[in-house]
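Consider the tokenized backbone below.
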């Protein structure tokens, strides 16, 4: 364990592509983000694992790919009125050995706070955070305690592009839409709103960095800024192309190996974020994690990043993609189906409405028709020469070797980690909820370790023992985490070893396995005589 453990601050943006000044965007008003990049490093080849929030965030919080967990469908906790036959709502019951990675930090003395978005496809277990609320902040920790704190400015969400009464600051005539979208006033205004919202989020970033400075913590805090996926325009959000998965990533590490103003071209996947934090904090990484550190002494280079698309709201799909330093390979499991299936929420977007209007009027030209073309089985794009991914090279003999290599990389990834997209969602949920009822974690029992009763029989609700008393907590639910409180603790501590009690105490405990209901709370009054 490092003697001077670093603090970690995460600022996670929503629905944001690299439209920062430090990424070369002339319209961006992002002085705080740009300053952070000047004081740290920019990672221009960072990618998420899914072009939509909840699957992406489930991979981030666990360090495992969403397709290996069963968290790949967007979304699981809503019931869709127009499609009642979907197996929603449900919490994904992920493998019993998987934890939200902040729990590992907590067991090694870190204070972990989240303010306050989760969106993991399962209810956040109470053992993951010391504080997961709108007031979550490193300032609530014990004096001198190292922290991992997450803040989630939500102003750049896709819905922020919808018409509002607020006057635009960004000039719609100056925004540049990608060539596959209509260049109309309504579309430009939507993107101008996104620039304005990003400027608002930049101010929030500035406030957090100022608080870090005011607390005298800036020099011992590694700051990460990233987005859960690309911006909310059609063929960007929800799609496993660069446009939907390439995200901004900035890291400032005072006194670390990152040089101010540096640019690191290595491939980074957001599934690597958690393992990287564990590595930097000196916390042992479980061997089952799929992500790998991209910074620090345990850094592992990547050859490929991978991304997926499955059900979005009412519409099923299955797309898998592999990306190396230059090429993007996309495999469509439903070739011949529309690029724009029926997703009512997406159709509220003004740019999507413009697409449909102009398509109906037969006024789209050239690449603006991309989303209305027949979907092929495979796509291969040279992102160096075709950054908008418009020229499919899958049938080009000159790129046959690249196509086969990328095919093989995707097949190897699916074999290595598994892909629950191969299982119908309804069948997957039935395996988790055999009686269509969410299972509940069993409540813990407490077992005394004394000379008379060496961990043989559970503690009664009220009992007396000689000092010192060791108490072992146990739950029969496989893989469940146990949290406990002693004498009115405000937070639930994560149980890792028998508790040593030297004086009379009131002990409370409950347990949780991710995807299960939380257990009832067990209580004991233990008199030490």
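A designed sequence for it:
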């Amino acid at each position: 364990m490092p003697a001077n453990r670093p603090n970690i601050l995460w600022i996670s943006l929503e629905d944001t592509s690299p439209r920062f000044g430090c990424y070369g965007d002339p319209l961006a008003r992002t002085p705080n983000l740009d300053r952070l990049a000047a004081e740290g490093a920019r990672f221009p080849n960072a990618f998420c694992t899914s072009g939509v929030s909840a699957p992406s965030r489930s991979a981030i919080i666990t360090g495992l790919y969403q397709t290996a967990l069963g968290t790949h469908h967007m979304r699981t906790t809503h019931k869709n009125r127009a499609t009642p036959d979907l197996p929603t709502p449900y919490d994904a019951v992920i493998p019993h050995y998987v934890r939200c990675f902040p729990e590992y930090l907590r067991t090694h003395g870190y204070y972990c706070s989240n303010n306050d978005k989760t969106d993991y496809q399962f209810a956040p277990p109470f053992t993951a955070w010391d504080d997961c609320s709108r007031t979550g902040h490193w300032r609530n920790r014990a004096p001198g305690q190292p922290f991992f704190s997450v803040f989630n400015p939500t102003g750049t969400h896709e819905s922020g592009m919808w018409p509002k009464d607020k006057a635009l600051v960004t000039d719609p005539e100056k925004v540049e839409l990608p060539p596959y979208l209509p260049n109309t006033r309504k579309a430009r205004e939507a993107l101008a709103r996104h620039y304005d919202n990003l400027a608002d989020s930049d101010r929030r970033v500035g406030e957090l960095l100022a608080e870090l400075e005011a607390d005298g913590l800036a020099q011992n805090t590694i700051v990460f800024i990233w987005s859960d996926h690309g911006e909310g325009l059609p063929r960007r959000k929800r799609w496993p192309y660069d446009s939907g998965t390439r995200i901004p990533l900035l890291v400032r590490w005072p006194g670390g190996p990152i040089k101010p103003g540096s640019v690191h071209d290595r491939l980074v996947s957001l599934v690597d974020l958690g393992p990287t934090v564990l590595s930097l904090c000196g916390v042992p990484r479980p061997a089952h994690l799929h992500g790998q550190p991209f910074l620090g002494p345990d850094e592992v280079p990547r050859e490929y990043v991978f991304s997926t698309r499955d059900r979005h709201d009412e519409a099923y799909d299955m797309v898998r993609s592999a990306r190396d330093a230059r090429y993007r390979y996309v495999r469509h499991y439903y070739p011949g189906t529309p690029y724009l299936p029926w997703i009512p929420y997406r159709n509220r977007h003004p740019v999507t409405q413009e697409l449909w209007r102009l398509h109906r009027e037969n006024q789209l030209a050239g690449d603006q028709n991309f989303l209305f073309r027949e979907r092929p089985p495979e796509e291969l794009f040279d992102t160096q020469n075709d950054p908008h991914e418009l020229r499919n090279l899958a049938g080009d003999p000159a790129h046959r070797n690249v196509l086969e290599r990328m095919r093989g990389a995707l097949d190897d990834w699916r074999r290595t980690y598994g892909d629950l997209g191969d299982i119908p969602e309804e069948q997957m949920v039935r395996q988790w909820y055999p009686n269509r009822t969410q299972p509940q974690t069993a409540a813990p029992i407490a077992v005394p370790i004394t000379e008379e009763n060496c961990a043989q029989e559970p503690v009664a609700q009220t009992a007396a023992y000689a000092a010192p008393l060791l108490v072992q907590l146990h739950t029969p639910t496989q893989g469940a985490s146990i949290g406990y409180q002693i004498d009115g603790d405000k937070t639930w501590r994560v149980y890792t070893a028998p508790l040593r009690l030297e004086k009379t105490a009131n002990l409370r405990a409950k347990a949780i396995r991710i995807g299960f209901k939380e257990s009832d709370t067990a209580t004991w009054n233990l008199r030490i005589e």
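The radius of gyration is 25 Å.
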